[in-house]
Amino acid sequence: MSRTPFIVANWKMHKTSKEAEEFIQTLSQKGLPAHKRVGIAPPFTALAAAVKAAKGTGIEIGAQTMHDQLEGPFTGEISASMLKLEGATFVILGHSERRQYANETNEQINKKVHLALKEKLHPILCIGETLKERQEGHHLAILTTQLKLCLKGLSSSLASQLTLSYEPIWAIGTGRAATPEMVQEIHAEIRSFLEGEFGVDCAGKVNLLYGGSVKVENSASLLAQTDIDGLLVGGASLDVDTFTRIMTS
Ligand code: PGA
What we know:
Blueprint: E1 6-10, H1 17-30, E2 37-41, H2 47-54, E3 60-63, H3 80-86, E4 90-93, H4 96-101, H5 106-118, E5 122-127, H6 131-135, H7 139-150, H8 156-159, E6 163-166, H9 180-198, H10 200-205, E7 207-211, H11 216-223, E8 230-233, H12 240-247
Parallel strand pairs: 1-2, 1-8, 2-3, 3-4, 4-5, 5-6, 6-7, 7-8
The site of 2-phosphoglycolic acid has 13 residues, from strand 8.
């Protein structure tokens, strides 16, 4: 089954609306690759400007997180419907920095996955193990638990609309990426988990991204693996020339 590779920039807490606009203009002038989808997740304050700049370019704009309720007294939070209304088409959920700094649990992330799908906001669900968990050989058990809890209650047809991103925590922002072979091995496990839970059709449809110190030097070899269907790029997505090279690799 063919899956269109998806290259996503996660800008984290970087870039103003003006910088987002300039980046998107430059990126679109360079021309998007023919057989890839390209997404950018700017901070909330740059979302509307990014949507406007990306109009007609094919670049998809998404958010880095959202709340698990549609509205209410939740100071500082933002909802799926608000993001949707601003023109976001996808949302990153369960990023390890959200799990670590905002104490997000698998149960909360599960609620967000359900809500995003209900609101027709495409979820990119992140999972990943710590260095200690990998060294102790528990990483597969940890990843399976994250998948089970975060995807709880989904039907096969809803699950097949997801994108998953494997992001080993020890590789994020460290310059120490997982090797293509390591990622392929995990992605094959994730796909067989999906097959067991949701069936072969769903497992064949879900894009599996990798994130963690993706750079120009490793992007092509990562994408060459059978089960790596895209990349979630942090630090290396902030420079338009670097991101362009990754996007076209
Ligand atoms: P990095 O971040 O590319 O800076 O390691 C990846 C991520 O957090 O998605």
